[in-house]
């Protein structure tokens, strides 16, 4: 078969690849393009996680981010990226090495359990309050000054 040509199955002649109808009247089947499956792009930026959790040095940022990104990837393997995106501490850390260490592993484990906690509703009774009855009371709030408060008896 010549390059750039396709063969008609009814008359055997060669036609161009892009032709949809042969000179004899035979119609070639159209191949539908497959929809490309797009990967769901994660909107979580690991660099922003690092900036939020760790103090950045003034110099040596390239080595710093390489080291901290390695530790962040280890933490994401242990827990999850979504968890690392929301976890926070009372102050910025000097390094993620604190979180990798065994001493603070217990704190992260506790936060991770709280993050994944799902309430078992079957243990608790559900109440139906029902329809309300009566008129709603409108409460007006009067601004009370200190003098009004002290003059009350």
What count of helical segments does DSSP give?
Answer: 6
Relative helix content: 25-40%
The order of strands across the largest sheet is 1-2
Q: Helices and strands, in N-to-C order? A: EEHHHHHH
- Share of residues in strands: under 5%
The largest pleated sheet is described as: 2 strands, antiparallel
Q: Which regions have little confidence, pLDDT < 50, spanning 5+ residues?
A: none
Oligomeric status: single chain
Overall geometry = extended
Radius of gyration: 34 Å
Average pLDDT: 85
Distance between the termini: 108 Å
Structural class assignment: mainly alpha
- Annotation, overall tally of beta strands: 2
Structure commentary:
This protein has 153 residues and is mainly alpha-helical. Helices cover 37% and strands 4% of the residues. It has helices at residues 46-53, 61-78, 81-86, 97-100, 102-116, 146-151; strands at residues 5-7, 14-16. Strands 1-2 form a two-stranded antiparallel ribbon. Strand 1 (5-7) and strand 2 (14-16) form a beta hairpin. The longest helix is centred in the middle third of the chain and has 18 residues, at 61-78. The N and C termini lie far apart (108 Å). The mean pLDDT is 85.
Features:
single chain, 153 residues, mainly alpha, extended, two-stranded antiparallel ribbon
List the helices and strands and how they pair.
Elements (H helix, E strand, L loop, with lengths): L4 E3 L6 E3 L29 H8 L7 H18 L2 H6 L10 H4 L1 H15 L29 H6 L2
Antiparallel strand pairs: 1-2
